[in-house]
TrEMBL record, chains A, B:
Protein name: TetR/AcrR family transcriptional regulator
DNA-binding segment(s): 33-52
Source lineage: Bacteria, Pseudomonadati, Bacteroidota, Bacteroidia, Marinilabiliales
Keywords: DNA-binding, Transcription, Transcription regulation
InterPro entries per record: Homeodomain-like_sf, HTH-type_TetR-like_transc_reg, HTH_TetR, TetR_C_27
Organism in which the protein naturally occurs: Maribellus luteus
GO molecular function: DNA-binding transcription factor activity; transcription cis-regulatory region binding
Domain called HTH tetR-type: residue spans: 10-70
Pfam families associated with the record: TetR_C_27 (PF17935), TetR_N (PF00440)
The keyword DNA-binding is assigned to this record: yes
Length: 199, 199
């Protein structure tokens, strides 16, 4: 059970991340300095370092939180009870829409976070991709349990994720002008659905 | 039937492209100037412009020729008589290997051509992608004629190409450190094979 002290600590962490995200949006990743984050919160930079061991750690948590926001609605679809094939379609369409929105609604922010993600090292991005593959694994295993997808095996989540990645990979979505390719995505999902069903 | 004059003309075009490619390799796309190409061939720049209407045209032909070299071995696989599923696997593996080689064997050259491709506009790249999709269409239609793939329809070549693109898209291959993902590619091809077979 969390204590009051834990909650306060979590609250301070969250406020530091809010301030850092606001500065990142305003000035870009190159100018994000721990001292500016501390000043924005009227806090010593030593205090910021109590919560984040280094600037890299702060970057990593920031990127992880940003990418984590995408995961919640997708996790909800993965956790539903309905037919797996329908959930696979909605999961893939939602991910495609989210990535297009990130690229098109706020391209500067997308670029800033993309650069911040580079600086943060592969950690937060890998954690995001792992979370998405885990969601896909839940849907595929449910489809196997339904008897619809006898072809589901240990690598299926990874393979289906890769085959669908042209609809969510930031570099591809960006190169594509964030175009809405939902119709093609539905067809590719149907093809994979049929392949998994064939076993 | 080509005349001697045509052959000579084709030969001059080819020599101009050779010189431009050598300069691109040596100095990068930013410094590629028509006057330097002409000088390397002891030819007036007006003569270069007789063969290429503009520097953009020269860039486009250069990128088209470079990408065209990748297409020949793939076209040969598409044109074979053997079972379509086997040809699809070899076609996809060959494309994956080629793109990894381009990225890893000669990263500066890859970057230079990538930049030149940007400057050339989408034309040469689109022509390359169209050629690859046409090859895939031949294989898929052969598989439909064999009776193996009743699921092949008007958009199948485009859809299968997209699902396989994570193994050949330059940005993805580059971000991936040109890693050999042949094993996963085989699995994705098997999944698509099963999906097309299900109809």
């Amino acid at each position: 059970m969390p204590t009051d002290a834990d909650q306060t600590s979590e609250d301070v962490r969250s406020r530091i991340l809010d301030a850092a995200e606001a500065l990142l949006r305003r000035h870009g990743p190159d100018k994000l300095a721990v001292t500016d984050v501390a000043r924005a919160l009227s806090m010593s930079h030593a205090n910021v370092y109590r919560y984040f061991g280094s600037k890299t750690d702060l970057f990593q948590q920031l990127v992880r939180r940003w990418l984590g926001r995408l995961e919640a609605p997708l996790a909800a679809i993965a956790a539903e009870d309905g037919p797996a094939a329908d959930r696979l379609t909605r999961w893939a369409l939602t991910l495609h829409r989210q990535k297009r929105e990130k690229v098109s609604a706020d391209p500067e922010m997308f670029a800033a976070f993309d650069k911040a993600a580079d600086r943060a090292g592969g950690g937060p991005v890998e954690a995001h991709l792992d979370a998405l593959r885990d969601q896909l694994r839940i849907i595929l295993e449910d489809g196997a349990a339904e008897g619809r997808w006898p072809g589901v095996g240990p690598t299926s989540a990874q393979d289906v994720f890769t085959a669908l990645s042209p609809f969510s990979h930031p570099a591809v979505v960006l190169a594509d002008g964030a175009a809405d390719r939902s119709e093609q995505l539905r067809r590719v999902v149907r093809l994979l659905d049929a392949g998994l069903a064939a076993g």
